[in-house]
Amino acid sequence: MRRFLALLGAFALAVGLSGCGYNQIQVADEATKSSWSEVVNQYQRRADLIPNLVATVKGFAEQEREVLTAVTEARSRVGQIRVDPTNPESLKQFEQAQAGMGSALSRLLVVAENYPQLKSDANFRDLQAQLEGTENRIAVARRRYIESLQQYNVLVRQFPVNLTAMVFGYATKQQFTVENEAAIAKPPAVNFERPAAAPK
Questions:
Q1: What is the C-alpha separation between 27 and 16, in angstroms, rounded?
Q2: 19-35 pLDDT, tens per residue?
Q3: H-helix or E-strand containing 42?
Q4: Which residues contact 189 (CB under 8 A, 6 or more apart)?
């Protein structure tokens, strides 16, 4: 009889938890973690392209040492940050490091304008295409993360799920924002075609 009551209690608890939104919270929480991992993965992909890009530019433009150093240092700063998406200060540091990386990359790509032989190099063109694709993936991953956070935050604030969230300690999560969101969401220009000469 005692075992039957224990099983009945466990069953009642399971039904109660599923009906109060506990399982929905778990699904939404895991979705935010998964989508954040994809954001980090795409930023890492961009960072992994940097050494080859720097080496290729260096082969043609050794005198651009200041720009090459800035990109390498920005990549190093990005690699040193261990971001916790639940910590606003950690997120801010991550965002600043990524913005610095984007800015340094943009300067490097502008430098390439001055070297026609670099722009015609097959390795450089391949890296250019990969970088453009990665920037697009970053924008998509960030959008998905923001959407998953929105769904989670709405869920844990809705009645009666908000009661379950309070009992189990699930609070709303910090949204991923940047100081200049429009600038960071737009991939850097990687088109190195020279404009046509003006007619004389």
A1: 17
A2: 688 999 999 999 999 99
A3: helix 22-60
A4: 106, 109
